[in-house]
Amino acid sequence: MSTGDMVKLNYSVNIEDFAKAGDISSNTKKVLKKLGIPSDITRRAAIVTYEAEMNIIIHSSGGEIIVNIDTAKIEIIARDYGPGIPDIDRAMQKGYSTASDHVRELGFGAGMGLPNMKRCSDGFLIESQKGKGTTVTSTIHIHN
Amino acid sequence: MYLYEIRDILDAEVIAGKSRMNREVDFAFGADLMSDVLAFVNERTVLLTGLTNPQVIRTAEMMDIKAIVYVRGKRPDTASLELAEENGMTIMCTPYTLYTTSGILYNAGLKGIDQLGVVK
């Protein structure tokens, strides 16, 4: 990728589509690898995307994931159409989860998703409006 | 520790990635919670789990984990195996429980991931 070039990936995420869960992050990871992004950066971006994908599938009424890649950074925007997070501080607490038993049986819903996304990001922002939806923006710097 | 050593000491059956037994791992991590795997694990780790759905393979894929041992005689579903092959992973099944599997590997010198404070 030469300076100024930008790759944009755009995916829609369906609710409770557990069979496809991971497809978006898998594809994103393949694209990052192909672009020659260092493997530790690629892994962090893959974790953020996967957690975001699971969050939208588990908790929302559907949404989308947009990944913008340029030479300096990867920006992952996960946006859903509701119901919104009533208490973001609580949602950010390790171990706090509102996931169902079914989700827990799949190995998720441990309340680690958002903290883990933040840990893997250099910049991290959650905006949420009750009834409207949530947007999580993660930025990861690329260092060569 | 080499994957063929893990296979031998766990009396494990290799059900995917038989040709990739010369890979080496530095750590093992045992969990049925994929959320925790995503939070704590590094590459060059063998994942020990009793959970058999495709999300296990997806999680391993994101973390660059190349070896999974299913414990308690569990076997992953067909979709998992296909996904594992696609990602060049080695999959083994052992009859031992998670606790015993961990003990055998630890005794043989394979360490766990100790820094559980990694999540800010």
What do these coordinates show?
The complex is a heterodimer of chains A (144) and B (120). Chain A has 144 residues and is α+β, with helices and mostly antiparallel strands. Chain A has a single domain (7-141), classed as Histidine kinase-like ATPase, C-terminal domain (Heat Shock Protein 90). Chain A contains five helices and five strands, in the order βααββαααββ. A five-stranded antiparallel β-sheet of chain A has the order 1-2-3-5-4, with helices on one face. The longest helix of chain A is centred in the middle third of the chain and has 21 residues, at 39-59. Chain B has a single domain, classed as Udp-n-acetylmuramoylalanyl-d-glutamate--2,6- Diaminopimelate Ligase, Chain: A, domain 1. Chain B is α/β, with parallel strands linked by helices and 120 residues long. In chain B, helix 2 links the parallel strand 2 (27-30) and strand 3. Chain B has a six-stranded mixed β-sheet with strand order 1-5-4-3-2-6, sandwiched between helices. The model of chain B has no long low-confidence stretch (mean pLDDT 92). The chains are: A alpha+beta (144), B alpha/beta (120). The A-B interface holds A 18-19, 21-22, 25-26, 29, 39, 43, 46-47, 50-51, 94, 106-113, 115-116, 118-119 and B 32-36, 38-39, 43, 51, 53-56, 58-59, 61-64, 118-120.
Task: Give a brief outline of the structure.
Chain A has 144 residues and is α+β, with helices and mostly antiparallel strands.
Label this structure with key terms.
A: 144 residues; alpha+beta; Heat Shock Protein 90; 5 helices; 35% helix; B: Udp-n-acetylmuramoylalanyl-d-glutamate--2,6- Diaminopimelate Ligase, Chain: A, domain 1; six-stranded mixed sheet; 6 strands; globular
